[in-house]
Fold:
Amino acid sequence: MSAAAASPAAARGEVILSARGLTKEFFGFKAVSNVDLDVRSGTIHALIGPNGAGKTTVFNLLTKFFAPTAGTITFDGRDITRTGPAEVARLGLVRSFQISAVFPHLTVLDNVRVALQRPANLATQFWRSNRLLDRLDARAMELIEAVNLADSAHLQAVELSYGRKRALEIATTLALDPPVMLFDEPMAGMGAEDIGRISALIRRIGEGRTILMVEHNLSVVADLCDEVTVLARGEILSQGSYATVSADPRVKEAYLGSEHE
Ligand SMILES: Nc1ncnc2c1ncn2[C@@H]1O[C@H](COP(=O)(O)OP(=O)(O)OP(=O)(O)O)[C@@H](O)[C@H]1O
Structure:
């Protein structure tokens, strides 16, 4: 049984996801304007910027939840500008949290089992073979251990703390084994302890895959991300390492300006 998404052709360090001239207008207002973005395979890449900068809109464009007004998006050498979100997920570009709905009254183990059965349509056939079922359970426990939830495997999702629920959501996304994972504010609403745990988890799952995340918490970005793209008013303001962009006077000004708005 393989739940794995297609393996990417892009080698580590090569561009795996890119946008050119990406633009999104809402009723004539340009939320995203002419964005060129390259995400390299094997990196953790952050999209940051002050409130209203267009981060979530770019995220929704890249994951195909929005259609662009103009521009193109390429994933692993393939033009996905007109490809739907389910198809891009199948190609290996998977957005965490929104796609991986957690069933509150199923246990952690059953939630991960369901996620594992989804891609291969095993829900209708797994009962046929005990061997298949055993393999499914073994893989589910591996994923649960990978996100440090082994001690909660038999708890219902609803009983988990917020940080642990996020870890479960990550496990259900990992069930698809996506080469590229996108996170929209993974640390939102978390306390310091959970932020530390989820950061460590994202760093671990980033080994051997590509991660693009929208994140407000700049110390998380500084700690975790290899590459940072700063957006302001729908346009790219600066790109590079965290050290580079944080030293950029335009970035400082954009953040300061937003505090006074
Ligand atoms: N569906 C929509 N209809 C109209 N305007 C929208 C829509 N979605 C976003 N916008 C506008 O586009 C701009 C960019 O919004 P977006 O949510 O992408 O920014 P953001 O950088 O993610 O902000 P935040 O950090 O506050 O979440 C904002 O001015 C917002 O009001």
Residues 130-146 form the longest helix (17 residues). Residues 26, 31, 49, 51-57 surround adenosine-5'-triphosphate (CB under 6 Å).
